[in-house]
Amino acid sequence: MMGLVFALRWQAALSRSVLVGLERQVWVNIINATFATLRSVGVLAALRWLAPTPKTFFVYQAAVAAVELGLLRFIVRRSLGFGSPTLASLSLAPLRRVANFSLTIAFAAAVSVSATQLDNLLLSKFLPLSEYAWFSLAVMAAGGINLLSGPIGQAVQPRLTYLNATGDEPNFRATYSDATQMLSAIALTASFTLASGARPLLWAWTGNTELADRTAAVLSFYALGNGFLAVVAMTYYLQVARGDLRLHLRGNLIFAVLLLPTIVVATLSKGMLGASLAWCGANLSFLLVWSAIVHKRFLPGQHVQWVLRDALLPGLIGATGSLSLQLVPWAALSRVLTALTLAGIGALSAGLAVLTTSPARRSIKGFGSARGAAP
């Protein structure tokens, strides 16, 4: 049953990618939200009312995956203008045309995953089991930044590819700039919020004061590192849109080669705090240095503006809001109130940062013009 679930969801990913390429973002997000809820919440009813066994769990997951695949295939066929299902002979020609590019993406992804998991592999060797468990918990909390940045990349990637294919360079550059600002406003602000409120967040989540005290700094630096990584991911979307990933592959190889000895030395010297410092520093360096190399090749003349105005300014504005976390009397709050306070201040900080971005200012200006022109 696990194999069947894997096969169905693999096919669903193909159909979902078609809809992303067609920029049917609303449909993709509705389906993602609906079936994620069915998989993670609906299964509780199956386990409660049928049988609380692994078999029930995976039969239910297979049924949900089958329905999801059927719905995605139906929407894809309608979106592409297909009529009733027909059989067609297999042709490898379309695959051959993109084989080199696809293999480069696959290899670069493998290198990227290896590089980003090096710290976990090394620390599992160097740290005591209990300390490694705390480290893993902090890393998991910092991983929430990736959940915020992923949807922005999903939305902007096909748009950049389309603009590059049609030769619309002015809009290509403007879209790249706008997307970076939004990503910075959301992801960097969230990372600064996690960094500033690391200890109360860990305490609210676990209720363990000792854990919160010893891993707060780890969460802070990993959150900042993930924020920098989320923003520099825009250079990856740029290279995909240009249809050339050779530089991206080299960058990941260099990143992995430099990160490995740095983490080893830092961990042996400072333990899990050293590993978190190495991770944060490596991603900040990648943002400031490697992005300049990428822009020189694929977007000449825009790097300084991109770093200062697009990549850093919105996030730094959001960081000013997160500094208010230092004024909160956390000791007087319960775990629930602590979590709600962190979420509220984080949301307000992100909202402030978003309002300063170029897309938001244009929307506000356009709304004001429309109101002024109304009779």
Structure report:
- With 375 residues, the protein is an all-alpha fold.
- The protein is built from 14 helices and no strands.
- The protein has helices spanning 2-21, 25-49, 54-79, 93-97, 99-126, 129-142, 144-165, 169-196, 198-206, 209-242, 246-298, 303-322, 335-355, 358-373.
- Helix 7 (144-165) packs antiparallel against helix 8, helix 8 runs antiparallel to helix 13 and helix 10 crosses helix 11.
- It is globular.
- The termini are far apart.
- The model has no long low-confidence stretch (mean pLDDT 87).
Task: Characterize this entry briefly.
The chain has 375 residues and is mainly alpha-helical.
The major beta sheet can be summarized as: none
Number of helices: 14
The amount of beta strand, in percent, is under 5%
- Name the helicity range: over 70%
What oligomerization state is this entry in? single chain
- What characteristic shape results from the CA principal axes? globular
Give me the Rg, rounded: 23 Å
Distance between the termini: 63 Å
**Uncertain spans, ≥5 residues at pLDDT below 50?**
none
- E-strand count: 0
What is the residue-mean pLDDT, rounded to a whole number? 87
SS-based class: mainly alpha
Order of helices and strands: HHHHHHHHHHHHHH
